[in-house]
């Protein structure tokens, strides 16, 4: 009998996870369905009842509860429930009640199991093989060619290598003979085992550094060095390199980060080649690299401001190429840093050299390398302790104003909270900054820290980096020793909570109320970043990036096994959702924002977002428990 | 909750009728059907095996028009199981009119391949046996089947049915509120299958497919009982 139950089949076929099933599997489901009607208010599944069916909502709405009776989820047409119980002990874990008059299709357990076996996507969806969020994040990565292409594919030959004692003239001749543009400088094995290797004749070497075409101009010729100078005296004593199995994208970001054009590629500790910027550009045209190098070539603020539209262009391209949130955040931060650096260079050109050393400090998302396309400027100046306000402040006030106005012109609006170097309070010598931080840490209160948490993401952008590094070290050292500070930070990290999920075209709050849109930063990424920061401070981490912080947290016993992975996936998914919706905004010529409207959220994205919100919610509960407010009576 | 219908005293004694016919028929298919009997009228609806039945016909008059397709879905008050569904297209004795073709989406080509009703009668009666039939508008399925069987086997087939349309009429046309609304000049509620379903929040289906309509009728009965009756109501109070 080949009766087509079109009504059932077509309806199922419109909703995940059924929408990707083959026709045969869909027929199998449709033909085995059992139907039942539930009047509004009637219980559909009761706690601990035996369950042998997956429930599918054909029409109406269903509320699902936790064991304790609090609302867990509200589901509508096309949603499924009961899968958790089916996958575990076949006892109902989350009781369900019809919220409206509801028609349910029950899919027998045997069919459910068969679908899980026959269709991997279905199994992923119902969380049989692994958590859905994890598979969603992995899926995003799978589609991207650039990410799986290893940097070694760009290498065409071994690097030209010379000993440190070689003269610069000899090195230049070798470069010319090999038609190369750089040499690696080797020395006897020394203090850095990371770049120490043995050659084919079993001699030990250590990579000292790289000497490039332009070094011959800037260091040798311009420096008036003799052709007999050993290269070891010219080469900068540091190596920035990537491993050969890193992705091309990683190599590109590494160049962006360090503003270098040649990147040695290592296989373990042995150099196997040098990648040049142009190799990557040839591989990946139209990238944010162009933008960055363009920024450094602008002679004026006006020129820089003209590049502002290119930022969103580079952003859209990157997302379309399948970059993950770390790449996007890192690239956008690099772009913003480049604008800032160039503005500072221009400022110094017009104001003259600084009277005392300083460091321009980024705060917040830029410091975390998690910048978004929707951002304002958060910055400060850390001045050398030789700073004398009467004598020097006029210069730095001018400098700060120049940069701040310039950033505003380039699409980074002024900070509403006035956290900018133009604010006298945030343009201070190192000693004052140290005092600020010690006051926040030693005498904290949630109120005092409410607007200061942004200072606990800090990074150097330009100038004497060591000034900011000292502050980073101070925070990493002191924060963990002050439980009251951690408790106050934790308290503030709980101010913003995620919603429960989506219901039809609404965002559903935990108390069952509905909203038309959701600010994914305020309700998702920001509280997640906040709570990761608290844990990172508690374990003395020096890292600023949330993912790096999670790596540091992983080295401690702070979180139960698996928890940090869940947070990682949740943050990645929340960030990517936000990024994708910003791309949609840009493509529709709307100014991008942090809001997403539920009608633009696909069904599977809803499920994943709900999982991410839940991971965040669990993590917040743990935070409250882990960093309690010490009682004030001592 | 509505009471029993008033002034409808002559509900037939279906049980007596069906069992009296069990020994009479000469056709073995009919004999088996009647032998399976009818549930006792005091059986609660929740415990009664039911079967939703729908037919598409070439017209409304059982003596002049023919059956084109038959769909049925066995069910209980708790569950409608689609594995037991049956659907037949049958070749009518009279040709299809163009109008009924557009109505049922069944074409002449479908019909040409189809069996005679005679060929599927055994299967049909077997699927109905021992279950209480549920239809929407009882003046189609029962008389058409009766006439068709009588024409082929020389004796008719009659059985009790629950008519979801007449239940809907009781609720929406005969209740005090409904009569009051009528006095106030409001148009009476539509009791057609898909209008009735809408009142219970049941989804719209593409109508006029015998199997889909049978499923739609089964869902409607579940909804009617959930809203207006108790699962304990004896079937004798709602069949006709």
UniProtKB/TrEMBL annotation, chain A:
Domain of life: Bacteria
Protein name listed in UniProt: Putative signal-transduction protein containing cAMP-binding and CBS domains
Organism, as annotated: Halomonas beimenensis
Annotated keywords: CBS domain
Location of the CBS domain: 155-229, 235-291
Pfam families membership: CBS, cNMP_binding, DUF294, DUF294_C
PROSITE patterns according to UniProt: CBS, CNMP_BINDING_3
InterPro entries: CBS_dom, CBS_dom_sf, cNMP-bd_dom, cNMP-bd_dom_sf, Diverse_CBS-Domain, DUF294_put_nucleoTrafse_sb-bd, GlnD_Uridyltrans_N, RmlC-like_jellyroll
Residues covered by the Cyclic nucleotide-binding domain: 17-115
GO molecular function: [protein-PII] uridylyltransferase activity
Automatic annotation (TrEMBL), chain B:
Coiled-coil region(s): none
GO cellular component: cytosol
Name of this protein: DEDDh 3'-5' exonuclease domain of the epsilon subunit of DNA polymerase III
GO molecular function, one term: nucleic acid binding
Gene Ontology process terms (BP): DNA metabolic process
Exonuclease domain sequence ranges: 49-230
Record bears the keyword Nuclease: yes
Keyword list, A-Z: Exonuclease, Hydrolase, Nuclease
Annotated Pfam families: RNase_T
InterPro entries recorded: Ribonucl_H (IPR013520), RNaseH-like_sf (IPR012337), RNaseH_sf (IPR036397)
């Amino acid at each position: 009998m080949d009766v087509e139950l079109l009504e059932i089949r077509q309806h199922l076929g419109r909703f995940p996870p059924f929408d990707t099933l083959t026709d045969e599997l869909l027929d199998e489901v449709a033909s085995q369905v059992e139907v039942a009607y539930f009047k509004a208010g009637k219980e559909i599944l009761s706690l601990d009842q035996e369950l042998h069916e997956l429930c599918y909502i054909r029409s109406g709405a269903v509320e699902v509860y936790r064991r304790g009776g609090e609302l867990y989820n509200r589901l509508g047409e096309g949603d499924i429930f009961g899968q958790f119980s089916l996958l575990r002990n076949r006892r109902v874990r989350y009781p369900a009640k019809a919220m409206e008059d509801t028609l349910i299709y029950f899919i027998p357990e045997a069919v459910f199991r068969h679908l899980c076996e026959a269709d991997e996507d279905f199994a992923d969806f119902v969380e049989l093989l692994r958590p859905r969020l994890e598979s969603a994040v992995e899926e995003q990565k799978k589609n991207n060619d650039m990410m799986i292409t290893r940097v070694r594919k760009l290498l065409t030959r071994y690097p030209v290598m010379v000993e440190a004692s070689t003269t610069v003239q000899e090195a230049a001749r070798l470069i010319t003979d090999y038609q190369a543009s750089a040499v690696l400088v080797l020395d006897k094995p020394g203090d850095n085992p990371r770049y120490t290797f043995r050659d084919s004749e079993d001699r030990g070497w250590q990579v000292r550094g790289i000497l490039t075409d332009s070094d011959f101009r800037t260091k040798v010729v311009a420096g008036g060095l003799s052709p007999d100078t050993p290269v070891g005296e010219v080469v900068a004593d540091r190596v920035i390199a990537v491993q050969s199995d890193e992705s091309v994208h990683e190599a590109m970001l590494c160049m962006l980060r360090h503003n270098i054009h040649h990147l040695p590629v290592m296989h373990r500790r042995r150099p196997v080649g040098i990648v040049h910027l142009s190799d990557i550009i040839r591989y990946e045209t139209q990238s944010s690299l162009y933008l960055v190098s363009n920024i450094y070539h602008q002679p004026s603020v006006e020129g820089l401001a003209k590049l502002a539209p290119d930022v969103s262009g580079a952003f859209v391209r990157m997302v379309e190429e399948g970059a993950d949130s770390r790449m996007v955040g890192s690239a956008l931060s690099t772009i913003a840093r480049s604008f800032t650096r160039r503005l500072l260079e221009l400022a110094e050109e017009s104001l003259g050299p600084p009277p005392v050393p300083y460091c321009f400090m980024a705060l917040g998302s830029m410091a975390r390398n998690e910048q978004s396309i929707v951002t304002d400027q958060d910055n400060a100046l850390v001045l050398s302790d030789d700073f004398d306000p009467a004598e020097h402040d006029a210069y730095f006030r001018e400098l700060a104003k120049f940069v701040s106005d310039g950033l505003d012109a380039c699409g980074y609006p002024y900070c509403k909270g006035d956290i900018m170097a133009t604010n006298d309070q945030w343009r201070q010598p190192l000693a004052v900054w140290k005092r600020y931080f010690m006051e926040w840490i030693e005498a904290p209160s949630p109120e005092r820290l409410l607007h200061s948490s942004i200072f606990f993401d800090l990074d150097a952008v330009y100038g004497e980096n060591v000034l900011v590094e000292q502050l980073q070290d101070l925070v990493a050292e002191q924060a963990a020793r002050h439980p009251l500070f951690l408790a106050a930070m934790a308290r503030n990290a709980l101010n913003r909570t995620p919603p429960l999920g989506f219901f039809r075209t609404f965002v559903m709050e935990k108390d069952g109320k509905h909203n038309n849109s959701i600010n994914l930063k305020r309700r998702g990424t920001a509280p997640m970043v906040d709570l990761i920061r608290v844990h990172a401070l508690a374990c003395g981490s020096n890292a600023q990036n949330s993912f790096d912080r999670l790596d540091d947290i992983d080295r401690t016993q702070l979180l139960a096994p698996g928890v940090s992975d869940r947070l990682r996936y949740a943050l990645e998914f929340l960030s990517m959702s936000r990024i994708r919706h910003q791309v949609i905004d840009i493509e529709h010529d709307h100014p991008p924002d942090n809001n997403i409207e539920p009608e633009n959220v696909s069904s599977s994205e809803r499920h994943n977002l709900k999982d991410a919100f839940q991971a965040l919610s669990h993590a917040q509960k743990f935070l409250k428990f882990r960093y309690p407010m010490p009682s004030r009576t001592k | 909750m509505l009471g029993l219908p008033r002034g409808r005293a002559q509900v037939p004694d279906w049980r007596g009728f069906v069992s009296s016919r069990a020994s009479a028929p000469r056709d073995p298919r009919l004999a088996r059907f009647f032998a399976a009997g009818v549930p006792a009228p005091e059986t609660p609806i929740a415990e009664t095996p039911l079967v939703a039945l729908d037919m598409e016909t070439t017209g409304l008059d059982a003596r002049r028009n023919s059956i084109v397709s038959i769909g049925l879905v066995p069910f209980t008050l708790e569950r409608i199981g689609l594995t037991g569904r049956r659907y037949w297209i049958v070749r009518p004795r009279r040709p299809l009119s163009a109008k009924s073709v557009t109505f049922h989406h069944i074409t002449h080509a479908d019909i040409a391949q189809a069996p005679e009703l005679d060929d599927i009668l055994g299967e049909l009666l077997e699927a109905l046996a021992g279950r209480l039939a549920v239809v929407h508008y009882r003046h189609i399925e029962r008389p058409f089947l009766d006439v068709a069987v009588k024409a082929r086997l020389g004796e008719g087939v009659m059985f009790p049915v629950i008519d979801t349309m007449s239940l809907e009429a009781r609720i929406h046309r005969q209740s005090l509120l409904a009569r009051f609304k009528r006095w106030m000049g409001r148009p009476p509620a539509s009791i057609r299958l898909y209008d009735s379903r809408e009142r219970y929040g049941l989804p719209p289906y593409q109508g006029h497919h015998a199997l889909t309509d049978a499923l739609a009728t089964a869902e409607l009965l579940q909804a009617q009982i959930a809203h207006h009756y108790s699962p304990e109501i004896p079937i004798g109070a709602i069949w006709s």
